[in-house]
Amino acid sequence: MGSAYRLHYEGADPNRYSNWLTTLVELLPANGRVLELGCADGIPTARYLSEYVDYVGIDLSSVQIEQARRNVPQAQFDIADMTTLVFPDNSFEGVVALYSIIHLPVAEQPDLLTAIHRWLKPAGYFLCVVGAGSWTGTDEDWISPGIRMYWSHADAATYQAWFIELGFTILDSHFVAEGEAGHTFFLLRK
User: Fold this and answer.
1) What is the radius of gyration, based on Cα positions, of the chain?
2) 16 vs 38: CA distance, rounded Å
């Protein structure tokens, strides 16, 4: 599915991931430890970040993790549910969640965001793409026939309020257009 997703969306802005990731790498210490939530097949995020940082990617799909291990053998990948992950406080210089958190029920997202804040070291960075408008639903034939995808997200103002309440500083936030809709990009510092 990671490959199909990439092919489907590359036409919109093929450089957006590299622009986001370059900005993050410029902020991180050399060989800093970075966690990606929902790494899919490892391309492009794991492939790029693992050149600069100590990268750990997790995904719920064993198929995606198998592909990621083949695509980016120098990185660490684990099969895990992001809502049940346990890491010591201050474990990472960075956490990345590009379009992954929005596949969890909205009611579960604040707890995950709280955990992410705890996992980050002081002055650590959180790069994410979340909802722009409040919506929960499914697409029965997402990208390919027979692929059912679930989304659940709050609006951008709610995410912003959650981040500020947790103690994040918002370094960048903007709308990411996708067809007739879109999402919200956030770059945050603990």
Assistant:
1) 15
2) 17
pLDDT, tens digit, 9 for 90 and up, residues 14-47: 567 889 999 999 999 989 999 999 999 998 999 9
Place of tokens 């103690």: 167
What is the model's pTM? Answer: 0.91
Closest CA to 99 of 12, 186, 172: 186
Q: Print burial letters for 30-51: b (CB count within 10 Å at least 16), e (below 16).
A: eebbbbbbbbbbbbbbbbbbbe
Helix or strand run (H / E) with residue 136: strand 135-139
Handedness of CA 145, 148, 154, 157 (dihedral sign): negative
Cα-based torsion angle of the residue sequence 96, 98, 103, 105 in order, rounded to the nearest 10 degrees: 50
